[in-house]
Amino acid sequence: xxxFVESGGGLVQPGGSLRLSCxxxxxxxxxxxxxxxxxxxxxxxxxVSCISGSDRRTRxxxxxxxxxxxxxxxxxxxxxxxxxxxxxxxxxxxxxxxxRGPASYWGQGTQVTVAx
Length: 116
Fold this sequence. Notes:
The chain has 116 residues and is an all-beta fold.
């Protein structure tokens, strides 16, 4: 059975850091492209960062560039999103997505709240 489970969210003050994790079971992440998305109520889900499954190239949205880092640990079958210098506008539910061809798996989401 396939599972893709996020963790690491929480409440943090502006300027703080969090590391989100997304652990896969039932499939191997190695060749999958991975994306992190976030969503706030009333708005569309937006892409935050992604890492390709082939050449491990990374991309970031302009709003998080220089503050967030996406990485993957194939041995642990886990992907991470290190978030530094967090801002209130980073608040939202964060989702990870693994894609390879027609296969696409989403995590259940983890809440990140940045507030004083």
